[in-house]
Design brief:
The protein is mostly beta strands. The chain is 11% helix and 29% strand.
Length: 171
C-alpha cells in the first residue's frame, strides 16, 4: 500500500472570531494628550492586502515606562483590504541607545507562527541613527521599519514577503 500525500492546510482565517476585541485598537482614549493613529496595511508578496490578519503592538508610555493606567498594548484585525489602525501615543526612549519604537506582531493565515518586527518613527531621525537594532540592519531592511508621518499619525505597511519585505526578527 502506498501512502497518499496529505493536502496542505493553511491556518485560519479565524482571527476576527476570537482574537479581535472592541477596544483593542484604543491603546489611549480618543482625545488623549498626544494621541496619534498608526495605520497601515498587511500585504502579501504580490502587494495585495491580507484580510483577517491581526496586528498587535506593545510599547512603553511617553516617559519610556509602563506607568500605572497606561495599557501599552494594542490589537487590531485587518479589514477586507488588509487595513489596520491603532490609536496610541508615541513611546518614550526605554533605554539609552534605543530610539522610540513599538514592538509589532502579525498573525495571518498561512503563518504557523506569528512574525515580529518594530515600528520606528521617521521624525525621530537623530534617535534612529543611534538605535542599535536599526544599526544592525542594512539600509533597505532598515527602511521597512520606519513609519512616515501621516495626517493624523503615522503610516506603517507590513509586507510579509517579496520585494520590500518588512524586516522581521527571530525571537
Amino acid at each position: 500500500m502506498t501512502a497518499a500525500t496529505t493536502p496542505s492546510q493553511t491556518v485560519g482565517p479565524f482571527f476576527s472570531l476570537g482574537l479581535d476585541w472592541e477596544d483593542g485598537p484604543a491603546v489611549v482614549a480618543e482625545g488623549a494628550p498626544g494621541a496619534v493613529w498608526l495605520r497601515g496595511r498587511v500585504l502579501d508578496g504580490a502587494g495585495e492586502g491580507i484580510p483577517d490578519a491581526l496586528v498587535e503592538t506593545w510599547q512603553a508610555g511617553p516617559d519610556g515606562t509602563l506607568a500605572a493606567g497606561f495599557r501599552g498594548f494594542g490589537r487590531c484585525g485587518t479589514d477586507a483590504g488588509g487595513r489596520w489602525a491603532i490609536r496610541t501615543v508615541k513611546p518614550g526612549v526605554v533605554e539609552p541607545g534605543s530610539a522610540p519604537h513599538l514592538a509589532v506582531a502579525v498573525f495571518a493565515r498561512g503563518l504557523l507562527k506569528h512574525v515580529v518586527t518594530r515600528l520606528y518613527f521617521a521624525d525621530e531621525a537623530a534617535a534612529n541613527a543611534t538605535d542599535a537594532v536599526l544599526a544592525a540592519l542594512d539600509g533597505d531592511a532598515r527602511a521597512t521599519l520606519i513609519a512616515p508621518a501621516a495626517e493624523d499619525g503615522y503610516r506603517f505597511d507590513i509586507r510579509l514577503q517579496g520585494p520590500g519585505e518588512t524586516a522581521f526578527f527571530a525571537i
